[in-house]
Write a structure and sequence with these properties.
11 strands; about 10% strand; alpha/beta; about 45% helix; two-stranded antiparallel ribbon
Length: about 425
C-alpha cells in the first residue's frame, strides 16, 4: 500500500471522482435560499479569501523567489468553497444526522481531491508512504553509527579495491543529527544523513560525499519524500556491491520560509556554514574521503541555486555540483529587494558572490557539474542554459539536461537517479 503512486495510476482518479461526487452532493440542496444565496455567497467568500491569501503571499509577505502558480490558488479556492458551503448544506436538513455526516464526508472529499491536485503539480509526495512519512531505508539513531576506523579501505576507483563481505547489510541506513554552526553561527535544522550498506562493515571503505540541499519552502526531509533519496541510493548500492556516497542533506535556510540566499549577510551566514562548518563536521564524525575531488554539492530549486553558488565561491571545497532547476543568481524575487535585504543595497557586494559574475571573471578548470531543468519549465530553461554556457566558458566540464516535467519533485528525483552514474565516476567510486 505504501508504494501506491499518488501521481499516476488509479488513486488520483479515484480521489478526483470522490471529490466530484462530494461537490455534487454539496450543491444539491433543494431549499430555495440555499441555491439562490448560500451557493453564490460561499463561492464569493472563498474567492475573496483566496484573493486575500494571494495578495498577502505574493505582494506583502513574498517569502518565495518565484510566484506560486495560479493553479494552486484555484484549487485552494475550491477547497475553501467546499468548507464554507458545509454549514448551510447541513442546515437544510438539521434533523437528519445521516445527511450531516454525508455532507461532512463530501466536503472532506473535495478538500482531499484539491490537495491531491496540488500535489500532482509539485509531486512532493509521490506515494502513499511518502505522504504518511514512511521511508524505504531503516532509520537509526546517530549514536548507533559505527565509529571511525583508523585503516579505511582506499583506492581509485573505490569499486576496484572493494569486496563486499558476506555479513554486509542488504541496505543502507538513514540517521539525523544537528550539525552546529561553530564558525558561522548559523542556526540550522537537523541534517539527514544516508550511509550506504558498506559503511556498516569492518574494515570499511573511505566514502565520497554528496551534500544535498532542499528548496524553499522546504526542509532536509524533502529529499527523502519527494526527492526519493532512499530509493535512489538503495538501487545504486545494490548494483555496486553496497557502495555509494555518504549523502548529507544539510539545512541551508534555517527554517521552512527563510531564505538567507546561501551568502554571509544580515540574513544569516549560510555560506560559511555550508563551506566550513558542514565539511568540518562530516570529516570529524563520518568515515569519508577528505580529498575535495571526492566531494560534491547539489540541490533542487533554491538548493540548486545554492549549489552553483558554492561551486563558484568555494571550488576548493565543492569542485563538483548538481544544479537542479536553480536560479542563475541568489534572489528574493527581484534584484533591488535582494540587494537591500542581504547586501545593504551594495551592487558591488552582490557582484563579488554572484555565480554569473564569478564565472565571467575566473577560470574553473578543475570543476564539473550538471545543470538539469524540467522540459516544461519554460520560465527557467533559458536562464539554466545561460548559466551552463557561462560555466563552460569558465573552463568547467558541464552538461545541460532536461527531464520530462516542470518545476517539481518528479524532475528532481529523476535527475538525481539519472546522474548517479556520472556522479559516482566523478567522485572516484566507479570507473
Amino acid at each position: 500500500m505504501t508504494d501506491l503512486s499518488l501521481l499516476s495510476g488509479p488513486i488520483p482518479l479515484v480521489v478526483a471522482a470522490m471529490g466530484a461526487a462530494g461537490g455534487v452532493w454539496l450543491l444539491t440542496g433543494r431549499a430555495g435560499w440555499f441555491r439562490r444565496r448560500a451557493i453564490p455567497l460561499c463561492a464569493a467568500g472563498a474567492g475573496v479569501l483566496t484573493g486575500c491569501l494571494w495578495f498577502w503571499v505574493e505582494r506583502v509577505w513574498r517569502p518565495l523567489p518565484d510566484p506560486i502558480p495560479l493553479t494552486v490558488y484555484l484549487w485552494t479556492a475550491l477547497a475553501l468553497w467546499a468548507v464554507t458551503l458545509l454549514v448551510p448544506r447541513i442546515l437544510i436538513a438539521p434533523r437528519r444526522v445521516w445527511a450531516a455526516a454525508v455532507s461532512v464526508a463530501a466536503a472532506a472529499a473535495v478538500v482531499v481531491a484539491c490537495a491531491v491536485q496540488i500535489n500532482l503539480f509539485f509531486a512532493a509526495y509521490p506515494t502513499v508512504g511518502a505522504a504518511l512519512g514512511f521511508e524505504h531505508v531503516t532509520r537509526i539513531d546517530f549514536q548507533a553509527v559505527p565509529p571511525l576506523t583508523p585503516t579505511p579501505i582506499a583506492g581509485l576507483p573505490l569499486e576496484s579495491v572493494w569486496t563486499p563481505p558476506a555479513d554486509m547489510p542488504r541496505a543502507g541506513k538513514i540517521t539525523s543529527v544537528n550539525i552546529p554552526g561553530d564558525h558561522s553561527g548559523f542556526h540550522a535544522r537537523r541534517a539527514e544523513i544516508y550511509l550506504p550498506p558498506a559503511y556498516f562493515t569492518e574494515p570499511r571503505p573511505q566514502f565520497p560525499v554528496l551534500v544535498l540541499l532542499a528548496g524553499q519552502p522546504g526542509q532536509p526531509k524533502d529529499w527523502l519524500t519527494g526527492g526519493r533519496l532512499g530509493t535512489t541510493m538503495v538501487n545504486f548500492a545494490r548494483d555496486h556491491g553496497g557502495l555509494g556516497p555518504v549523502v548529507v542533506v544539510a539545512d541551508a535556510t534555517g527554517s521552512t520560509w527563510d531564505n538567507p540566499l546561501c551568502v554571509d549577510s544580515p540574513l544569516g551566514h549560510a555560506a560559511t556554514y555550508l563551506a566550513e562548518d558542514v565539511p568540518a563536521w562530516i570529516k570529524a564524525h563520518i568515515q569519508v574521503d577528505p580529498d575535495p575531488g571526492a566531494w560534491a554539492i547539489g540541490g533542487l530549486s533554491l538548493g540548486g541555486t545554492c549549489a552553483l553558488q558554492m561551486a563558484t565561491n568555494y571550488p576548493q571545497t565543492y569542485p563538483t555540483f548538481l544544479d537542479l532547476s536553480g536560479d542563475p543568481e541568489p534572489t528574493l524575487g527581484d534584484h533591488q529587494r535582494t540587494l537591500d535585504a542581504a547586501f545593504g543595497g551594495n551592487q558591488a557586494a552582490f557582484t563579488r558572490v554572484n555565480p554569473l559574475d564569478l564565472l565571467a571573471e575566473h577560470r574553473y578548470p578543475d570543476s564539473a557539474g550538471v545543470f538539469v531543468v524540467g522540459s516544461d519549465d519554460e520560465e527557467l530553461k533559458p536562464s539554466i542554459r545561460k548559466a551552463c554556457d557561462a560555466a563552460r566558458l569558465a573552463g568547467m566540464d558541464v552538461t545541460y539536461a532536461e527531464v520530462r516535467g516542470g518545476h517539481n519533485f518528479a524532475v528532481w528525483s529523476a535527475a538525481l537517479s539519472t546522474e548517479m552514474d556520472w556522479l559516482a565516476t566523478r567522485l572516484g567510486l566507479t570507473s
